Amino acid sequence: MTAARKKWTDFAAKASTQPALFEAPEQPRRRRAGTCKKPSIPERDIQRSIVFGLKSHPDVRPETVERTGVYTGRVVRPNGSIGYAKAGQKGMADICGKLKDGRKFAIEVKRREARNSLTDEQREFLDDYIKRGDLAGVATSVEEAFAIVEGRV
Description:
The structure is a single chain. The protein is α+β, with helices and mostly antiparallel strands and 153 residues long. The chain has helices at residues 8-13, 43-55, 120-131, 142-150; strands spanning 66-67, 71-76, 82-87, 95-98, 104-109, 135-139. The protein is elongated. The chain starts with 7 loop residues before the first helix and ends with a helix. The relative contact order is 0.14.
């Protein structure tokens, strides 16, 4: 008498004898394609890195590089009350400074996705700089800012 040879399906059909250690959590719901926001670097971080890079550039006077633009800040009045005041003019570039040869530069900082979204006031401000013979442009990275300062743009 020979015993019948078992097939692999005989083993697969049996229920597991080991009990489950825990209940599996429910799967998270999936988002539809295209509904997640892509990560983007904030403009303030780009500005910070450009200012840091320009201060170490050999053609730039580091003490003149500053972040400009329109800012709203808290002001404490002489009577002790608190108010808000705006500084700067509308359309002013984000970074301004001077080169060692005496020329000025103005750089408008934008995120890569919003590179072509200049307002009319910003365009006028940059065009005025260029008309005077100074350097101006839009930068999305330190390399582009260097190109503006070196006159390669």
